[in-house]
């Protein structure tokens, strides 16, 4: 089940962050800010076992930026990341935002493939974006339907096996 994330999820999300992102995980303070900020929208994927994945975006005046998305290793290959991302895109669209952007490691092919499958295209390269590894990041963007017809209104639920392995800052 996908639902809105809440501050009550903080401890479980810190655990998920650490297990998914390792030394690149957000701190408790950073994650608390993300969950509390009025300009942020976060969703969790939860089943009877607990929270298996989450993701969120920042809303600007016209644009949204995907901040993070991650799924526990043992819960991958179930379409969780693709479902979360589709719901986040739909949420940004419902807010009337015009575009969603993100940054992704150039070596994260599973994430890049998922983003492409959901309508994102490469817009630029940020050299040395991920530190301390000094790894480059692609900036990817997609239009939202609030700016007219395009690839946006058709977020498919038929996602391939690789699409749930999206980890934006892995």
Describe the structure in your own words.
It is a single chain. With 170 residues, the chain is of the alpha+beta class. It has one domain (2-143): Aminopeptidase, CATH 3.40.630.30. 26% of the residues lie in helices and 33% in strands. The chain has four helices and seven strands; from the N terminus they run E-H-H-E-E-E-H-E-H-E-E. It has helices spanning 10-21, 28-36, 80-94, 109-117, and strands at residues 2-4, 40-47, 50-59, 63-71, 99-105, 121-130, 135-143. The protein has a seven-stranded mixed β-sheet, sandwiched between helices. Helix 1 (10-21) crosses helix 2. The longest helix is centred in the middle third of the chain and has 15 residues, at 80-94. The protein starts with a strand and ends in a 27-residue tail after the last strand. Mean pLDDT is 86; it is low at 147-170. This is Ribosomal-protein-alanine N-acetyltransferase.
